[in-house]
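Try this one yourself first.
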């Protein structure tokens, strides 16, 4: 396990710690099934793993962690499962509001919050207010998030600004400023546990040059050691961005 703290940008660069890590939190249901438990027990275990991994990212000097917790497609699941996930998110947001400042972890919600219950919307709003007071490491939780949905929302907002004379000619940089991730560097490393090798509509715009790491480990079993392995593989990659070395 990497135990030294790499808190400055220079130290992080040298150590090869990615500035921004994105993770698709997948495999909760299968983790529970293997244990003869209901799928929802997997989601509860997955929430604990998120806590542990987020703190570990903070400690090793990652600046941003973006996790996929509930997609725009996940509404297709059985009502009871969706309800349980929403209850867990409610509990998690309450805790985040209490602990963000103490833990030095700024939490942001990415996604179409208007599609969530009024209670969750209010919590997301409070969490945002608290996050404004926190400096340093930032964890973004994607809730009711879809990459295409995000792009369509951004395009609509840009069109409105253009029509009212508030926006100029569209560039990649300007378009990025309409996304949930405005002002945040693109992910360097995208991790998908759970064995699938697909994006499932996650960060379609932002992952243009991310390095991908797939593992069969199910999300609730994901450990800091597994994150170290992903980072070691990331370090060995040659990022050319279309150029030559
Ligand atoms: C990821 O785990 C959590 C959500 C999508 C909400 P899954 O629930 O997809 O777990 P598997 O893929 O069925 O094992
Ligand atoms: C992706 O996992 C979405 C989240 C982890 C929130 P899914 O389990 O929904 O993805 P698919 O259905 O296997 O593509
Ligand atoms: Mg899944």
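Now uncover the answer:
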């Amino acid at each position: 396990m990497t135990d030294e703290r790499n808190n400055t940008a220079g130290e992080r660069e040298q150590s090869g710690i990615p500035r921004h890590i994105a993770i698709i939190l997948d495999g909760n249901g299968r983790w529970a099934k293997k244990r003869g438990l209901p799928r929802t027990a997997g989601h509860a275990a997955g929430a604990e793993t998120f806590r542990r991994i987020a703190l570990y990212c903070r400690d090793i000097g990652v600046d941003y962690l973006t996790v996929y917790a509930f997609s725009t497609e996940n509404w297709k699941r059985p009502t009871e499962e969706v309800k349980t996930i929403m209850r867990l998110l409610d509990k998690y947001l309450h805790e985040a509001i209490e602990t963000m400042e103490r833990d030095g972890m700024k939490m942001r919600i990415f996604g179409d919050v208007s599609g969530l219950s009024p209670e969750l919307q209010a919590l997301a709003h409070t969490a945002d207010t608290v996050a404004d007071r926190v400096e340093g490491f930032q964890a973004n939780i994607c809730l009711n998030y879809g990459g295409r949905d995000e792009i369509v929302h951004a395009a609509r907002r840009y069109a409105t600004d253009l029509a009212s004379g508030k926006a100029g000619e569209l560039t990649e940089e300007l378009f990025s400023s309409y996304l949930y991730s405005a002002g945040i560097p693109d992910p360097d490393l995208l991790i998908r546990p759970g064995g699938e090798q697909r994006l499932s509509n996650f960060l379609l715009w932002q992952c243009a040059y991310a390095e991908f790491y797939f593992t069969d480990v199910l999300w609730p079993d994901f450990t800091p050691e597994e994150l170290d392995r992903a980072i070691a593989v990331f370090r060995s990659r040659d990022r050319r961005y279309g150029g030559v070395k």
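Discussion: The first helix runs from residue 9 to 15. The pocket of IPE (ligand 2) is lined by residues 24-26, 68-71, 74, 196, 198, 200 (CB under 6 Å).
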